[in-house]
Known about the structure:
This protein is an alpha+beta fold and 265 residues long. It has 2 domains: 1-108; 112-253, Beta-Lactamase, CATH 3.30.450.40. The protein contains 4 helices and 6 strands. It has helices at residues 2-108, 114-129, 168-176, 223-264, and strands at residues 131-140, 145-152, 161-162, 180-181, 195-201, 204-214. β1 (131-140) and β2 form a beta hairpin. The longest helix has 107 residues, at 2-108. The protein is rod-shaped, with a radius of gyration of 50 Å. The model has no long low-confidence stretch (mean pLDDT 82).
Amino acid sequence: MTEERHPDRLDGVKNMFRDLLERSRALREDLMHENDRLKERIQELESDLTTAESFLSTEFEQTHREREHLRRQTTELQIENRDFAQRTVELEDRSASLANLYAATFQLHSTLDPNAVIQCIVEILLNLIGASDFALYLTDDAKGDFVLAAREGETAPDTQRLASLEDPVEKAALADHRAVFGDEIPQAGPGGAIACAPLFFNERLVGMITVYGLLSHKKEISVLDRELFDLLCGQAALAIVSSQAYVSVDRKLKTVQRFMDLLKS
């Protein structure tokens, strides 16, 4: 009985090991299959991660470019707004100055009294141009020099007659027949004229305005001041000639009237 059972035990053990071997092989295959699947999944995840990183990098670069573009546009708009505001202020100043010049010109031509004309020119130089030191000379055709008609401030020369021109700004103004400013003349030095405008009427030299200093609130002569200065000089020359002509005609009429009265008597 014992010998008959022994082969059966051996067969059972063999079958058990065979079964274990089969299970082990199946388990190994399953593990290998699962390992391959996990590797594929890892590769997919790595690919997705690379794609995501590339996408995020692209999005970041695009967002950065858009942000920089918006920043530049904002800066440009700020500059444009400042320029627009500055131009608006300049336009308002120009409009106000032109309105003041119109009113001053109307006042300048509203009188034929030479003294009143001179006083109007002085007020325009003070209130409109902002000059603090200046001199207004009238031409003396008989003697060929200039006669002081008005003077303001301490810098202007205190002389009643001006026989010759020494200031380079005045020389340039008379030579060019136009308003000349100190920053145009390299030879202009401190204490001299900062602007000079000859008063011409139909190529006839009527007089000359020389500015030596500005009011404390004005640091320099602006572009608008230069334009107003040119306009003022043309109108001032016309007003002076008109007043001089009126005085001359009025004097002649009075002389004729006295002569007629003598004849009647």
